[in-house]
UniProtKB/TrEMBL annotation:
Name listed for the protein in its UniProt record: Nucleoside diphosphate kinase homolog 5
GO terms, molecular function: hydrolase activity; nucleoside diphosphate kinase activity
Record keywords: Cell projection, Developmental protein, Hydrolase, Kinase, Transferase
Record-linked PROSITE patterns: NDPK_LIKE (PS51374)
Localization per Swiss-Prot or TrEMBL: Cell projection, Cilium
Any one biological process term the GO annotation gives: cilium movement
Residue intervals of the Nucleoside diphosphate kinase-like domain: 1-107
Alphabetical list of PANTHER family matching this protein: NUCLEOSIDE DIPHOSPHATE KINASE, NUCLEOSIDE DIPHOSPHATE KINASE HOMOLOG 5
GO terms under cellular component: cilium
One Pfam match: NDK
The family this protein is said to belong to: Belongs to the NDK family.
Organism: Tauraco erythrolophus
Length: 167
């Protein structure tokens, strides 16, 4: 999540695929008129799920056809529709790089690479956590396991603090 304000030039670059359309000048003027919040959403089928939550891009149409969608609730018209959503995974990747240039995004492993990663890094920790969960039998197993995984994260940074006595 990042709060920022884009210049008209940055908005023109972000919406370059809309260049030449009648609404382009109004779009860039509106999008650069104040601060915005950019977010990266991560979940299975994130792009399609987010598009479903957003509803149609025209907020007036969204009120008629998808009254509980975010654009129906927060948008005012077809230009000021309150929220943006990437059209595809490739556009999401491009837009994430645009809004978060300091973030390093790596390709998500698939197939055998994904299985190898899970077997090497995820399964051992998860198995140990689930075993401890079965032994402990806590009242709230989900919260207990979440806390256990945070505590036993093998990638957790370990800081060495050396306390010296003052003379």
């Amino acid at each position: 999540k990042r709060k920022l304000q884009l210049s008209p030039e940055q908005c023109s670059n972000f919406y370059a695929d809309q260049y030449g359309k009648v609404f382009f000048p109004n779009l860039t003027a509106y999008m650069s008129s104040g601060p915005l919040v950019a977010m990266v959403l991560a979940r299975h089928c994130a792009v399609s799920y987010w598009k479903e939550l957003l509803g149609p891009s025209n907020s007036i149409r969204a009120r008629r056809t998808h009254p509980h969608s975010l654009r129906a609730i927060y948008g005012t018209d077809d230009l000021r529709n309150a929220l943006h959503g990437s059209l595809s995974i490739s556009s999401a990747e491009r837009e994430i790089r645009f809004m978060f240039p300091e973030v390093i995004s790596e390709p998500i492993p698939t197939g055998q690479r994904a299985r190898d990663y899970l077997n090497l890094y995820v399964k051992p920790t998860l198995l140990a956590g689930l075993t401890a969960l079965c032994k402990e039998k806590p009242a709230d197993p989900m919260t207990w396991l979440a806390d256990w995984l945070i505590e036993h994260n093998p990638n957790k940074p370990r800081l060495q603090h050396h306390i010296t006595e003052e003379e």
